[in-house]
Write a structure and sequence with these properties.
Elements (H helix, E strand, L loop, with lengths): L19 H66 L7
């Protein structure tokens, strides 16, 4: 009465056996989780890329404005340089 029959409860290892239903959906669940992580990382990468592109567009707008101002001022600078090199005198 004190000893249990060991043949009724065989030792299968350190981990208990998985339920039959669990073994059916576990591989597909792991694959789904794996692809879910890949999808999440892809979307996060797209968000980072879009944010960086917006920053670069803003920088480019500022640079284009500065360049436009320099180009607009260039004819006046050329005229001033020509006047300094050949000043207008009463003879001309």
């Amino acid at each position: 009465m004190g000893r249990a029959n060991l043949t009724l409860y065989p030792v299968t290892g350190l981990m208990p056996a998985l339920l039959p239903g669990l073994t059916e959906w576990l591989p597909s669940g792991i694959i789904t989780a794996f692809f879910g992580l890949i999808w999440y990382e892809q979307k996060a990468g797209e968000a980072r890329l879009n944010k960086r592109m917006d920053e670069l567009k803003a920088d480019m707008k500022g640079d284009m404005k500065e360049l436009r101002e320099k180009v607009d001022a260039l004819p006046w600078k050329l005229m001033e340089a020509l006047r300094a090199a050949q000043p207008v005198t009463p003879e001309r």
